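Page 47, continued from p. 46.
Same chain as before, 245 aa.
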Amino acid sequence: MFKKTALIVIFVVFVISAGHCSTSTWLMKKKLSIVIDDMGYDKNLAYKFLSLNMPLAYSFLPDATYSTQLSNRFGERGYTVMIHMPSEPIDYPKDNPGKNAIYTTTSREKTFYLLNRAYENVHYAMGLNNHMGSKILQDKRHLDYIMEFLKTKHLFFIDSATIADSLGCKEAKKFDILCARRRVFLDNIKNVNYIKGQIELAVKMLKKRNSVVAIGHCSEATYEALREEKKLLKPYIIDVEYIVQ
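Result:
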């Protein structure tokens, strides 16, 4: 009788353990990364994001006032730092990407100069994503210039997918550049409840995907929404460098 009871206990423990392992494996596969764009202008707000103590990636505009200083600080703290590269949108000049942007008329030499300048201004950069750039993301020639540069610096590419038929990751693959595509914009509307809804949408997308990249911006509303949704995000959120492939 004792032996039979012992065997049942062992079997139950095994089943529970197996189920736990299976659950752990499922959680390990379900990964959500959040990139915070437009970093470099607001020092105080940047430090508020830092206080969240979450594995967010931070993308700095090369010409923002505090980009060099803050990218240093964030990189030293072990956070993933990225270059938020100004690039031509389809509706330029109505929408202006700002100083030192890449345009479809920019030569290869000038493109490399602008990218190298951005790399020097944003310290600890591990990757790059586009600021605006819907026209560049359709321009194979300039994407190839960008991928050439990224290869020389061993940087990954996050396609902000500011246009549906972006060629970003397709061109990255040609150059063996690690790439991931943005699936959710968190804060097209700067409202805390709206952003929380977008965070919840990104988590729901994990039912059908093993990984999701979301992009938010350096704003008070985005900070507050992330702070309030920290518990929801905890099982899934991971540094974007572990999602690029």
